[in-house]
């Protein structure tokens, strides 16, 4: 089904299922696709369906609500998030392009969404890629699948995707990443620091080597880790989102902190961002939730944010530090 220039795979099946069921319906979508969510709500009727105002950066952001069915538009389900969901009580069924996540009293339907390509944008991106030196691999975030399919076919590149901003399983020498902004490209670079990674943005019609942005991140991260090594009091961030919750590992984290003479307390939240972090009177923050918090917007926080895979660097040296550690999740809790 095509809505506002976005192709939604399996939506007809979901609408049919929900029309034959009772209960409230919430429609989630990331920034850029919320207008699509509004149109889907109109198809179901305003008496039952409502558009969520929550931030949904990925499938890990789903929050089951008792007696409610949720349509989550536009995100893939990577293996790491699937594992965490299962550990937190979810069952997962896959059929065609549709993924159904079931909790005891709530069902979530993941509906893939793809931007309909603009031929002029495709032509411009191909020209820019050839000028930059076309990569042998084209990877993509889910909504950009149709763009990536075309670019890879024309350039004769290998295609990989969809992938998410917290999980990229390949070791590569170079890649072009089709997505909005630099977030997904940075994920590929974190895992492959020596690779040439090009950010291919159909919205801005740009092709950008992200090496400078990666070096900027690395400088901020190493500076934060050095500062965190002096921490005497830290806050440990815990989320209730079942696709992110590492509650089963929190005791390991707290024990590691105690054994190293670091005072700590827990902060529980659905949505954690710079405003909350900056308000906390601590020397550093340990993030057990979405790893994005530990590498995105570092210039907006006033204290170090340490992800699970980086905890050991609070007391160990940084000689063996790898940027991929920022994505290690659930991490080694200092071991």
Walk me through this protein's architecture.
The structure is a single chain. The protein has 335 residues and is an alpha/beta fold. It folds into three domains: 2-113, 3-Layer(aba) Sandwich (Rossmann fold); 119-209, Diphthamide synthesis DPH1/DPH2 domain 2 (Rossmann fold), CATH 3.40.50; 216-327, Rossmann fold (3-Layer(aba) Sandwich). Helices cover 30% and strands 24% of the residues. It is built from nine helices and 18 strands. The chain has helices spanning 11-19, 34-44, 79-87, 119-132, 145-155, 183-191, 211-228, 247-259, 274-279; strands spanning 2-3, 6-8, 24-28, 49-51, 68-73, 91-95, 98-103, 106-111, 113-115, 137-140, 158-160, 174-178, 196-201, 206-209, 233-239, 263-269, 284-287, 305-307. The protein has a six-stranded mixed β-sheet, sandwiched between helices. Strands 11-10-12-13-14 form a five-stranded mixed β-sheet, with helices on both faces. A hairpin with a 2-residue loop joins strand 6 (91-95) and strand 7. The termini are far apart.
* Alpha-carbon distance between the two ends: 49 Å
**In the CATH hierarchy, what is the superfamily of the largest domain?**
Diphthamide synthesis DPH1/DPH2 domain 1
Number of domains: 3
The amount of beta strand, in percent, is 15-25%
Tally of individual helices: 9
CATH topology description of the largest domain: Rossmann fold
Derived structural class: alpha/beta
Based on the coordinates given, report the CATH architecture of the largest domain: 3-Layer(aba) Sandwich
Strand segment count? 18
Question: Which CATH C-level class of the largest domain is it?
Answer: Alpha Beta
Neighbour order of strands in the largest sheet: 4-3-5-8-7-6
What is the C-alpha radius of gyration, as a whole number of Å?
A: 21 Å
Q: Unreliable segments (pLDDT under 50, ≥5 consecutive)?
A: 330-335
Pathway: Protein modification; peptidyl-diphthamide biosynthesis
GO molecular function, one term: 4 iron, 4 sulfur cluster binding
Organism: Thermocladium modestius
Protein name: 2-(3-amino-3-carboxypropyl)histidine synthase
């Amino acid at each position: 089904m095509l809505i506002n220039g976005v192709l939604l795979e399996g939506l007809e099946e979901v609408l049919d299922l929900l029309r034959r069921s009772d209960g409230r319906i919430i429609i989630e979508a990331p920034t850029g696709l919320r207008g699509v969510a509004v149109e889907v709500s109109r198809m179901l009727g305003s008496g039952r369906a409502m558009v969520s105002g929550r931030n949904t950066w990925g499938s890990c952001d789903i929050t089951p609500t008792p007696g409610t069915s949720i349509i989550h538009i536009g995100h893939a389900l990577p293996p790491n998030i699937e594992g965490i969901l299962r550990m937190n009580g979810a069952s997962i069924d896959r059929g065609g392009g549709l993924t159904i996540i079931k909790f005891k009293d709530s069902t979530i339907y993941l509906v893939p969404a793809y931007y309909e390509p603009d031929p002029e944008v495709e032509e411009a991106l191909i020209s820019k890629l050839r000028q930059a030196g076309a990569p042998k691999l084209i990877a993509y975030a889910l909504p950009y699948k149709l763009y990536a399919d075309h670019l890879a076919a024309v350039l004769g590149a290998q295609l990989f995707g969809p992938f998410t901003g917290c999980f990229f399983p390949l070791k590569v020498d170079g890649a072009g990443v089709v997505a909005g902004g630099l977030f997904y490209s940075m994920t590929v670079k974190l895992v492959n620091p020596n690779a040439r990674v090009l950010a291919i943005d159909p919205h801005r019609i740009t092709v950008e080597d992200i090496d400078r942005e990666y070096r900027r991140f690395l400088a901020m991260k190493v500076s934060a880790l050095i500062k965190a090594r002096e921490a005497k009091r830290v806050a440990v961030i815990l989320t209730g989102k079942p696709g992110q919750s590492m509650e089963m590992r929190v005791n390991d984290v707290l024990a590691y902190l105690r054994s190293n003479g670091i005072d700590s307390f827990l902060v529980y939240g659905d949505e954690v961002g710079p405003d909350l972090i900056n308000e906390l009177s601590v020397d550093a923050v340990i993030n057990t939730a979405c790893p994005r918090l530990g590498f995105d917007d570092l210039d907006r926080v006033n204290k170090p944010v340490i992800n699970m895979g980086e905890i050991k660097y609070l007391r160990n040296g940084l000689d063996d530090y790898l940027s991929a550690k920022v994505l290690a999740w659930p991490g080694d809790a200092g071991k």
